[in-house]
Amino acid sequence: MRSRSLFEIKGFSPGPLGRRIAEELELRHRGKEHAIRGRDLAALLGATWGEVAAEIERLRRIWRLPIGSTRVRPYGYYWIENLDEAEETIRMMERSAFKMLTKVAIAKRTTLRQLIEAQLPLYENE
């Protein structure tokens, strides 16, 4: 008898693309060393990179699937196999969130006048 996967046990039902992404990662890309680039995953599944990225976000957020990602070699997404991989993915997400919050804080402190004045030199030579 074949063992059931984690998402089958949980009643996993995200839709066709989400199921295909989860199956691909769980069966063929277990662990960071087997990561697959997002664009390669999209091509493999006949989807766009944007569709795959959005679906991976939903799989993580709604279904809480252990999908890791890395921005260093080997680049891409993978099915998290251990605590080290989970912690590495969380650290990467925290760094990304901090960078975004820093950009928001800077934007909030910038007045509309400053934004316009910063853009004017770009159009003066046209």
How would you describe this protein?
With 126 residues, this protein is mostly helical. It has one domain: Orthogonal Bundle (Arc Repressor Mutant, subunit A), CATH 1.10.10.10. The radius of gyration is 19 Å and the shape is elongated. It has a two-stranded antiparallel ribbon with strand order 1-2. Strand 1 and strand 2 form a beta hairpin.
CATH class: Mainly Alpha
Give the count of structural domains. Answer: 1
Mean pLDDT: 86
Annotation, overall tally of beta strands: 2
Name the beta content range. 5-15%
| Contiguous helical run count | 6
Q: Tell me the CATH architecture.
A: Orthogonal Bundle
Radius of gyration: 19 Å
- Main β-sheet: number of strands, strand sense, barrel status? 2 strands, antiparallel
How much helicity do the residues have?
55-70%
Unreliable residue runs: none
CATH superfamily: Winged helix-like DNA-binding domain superfamily/Winged helix DNA-binding domain
Oligomeric description of these chains: single chain
The helix/strand order is HHHHEEHH
According to CATH, what is the topology?
Arc Repressor Mutant, subunit A
Strand order in space, largest sheet: 1-2
Distance between the termini: 71 Å
Structural class: mainly alpha
Structure, briefly:
This protein is mainly α. The protein has one domain (6-123): Arc Repressor Mutant, subunit A, CATH 1.10.10.10.
What's the SSE blueprint?
Layout: H1 6-9, H2 16-28, H3 38-45, H4 49-61, E1 67-70, E2 76-79, H5 83-109, H6 112-123
Antiparallel strand pairs: 1-2
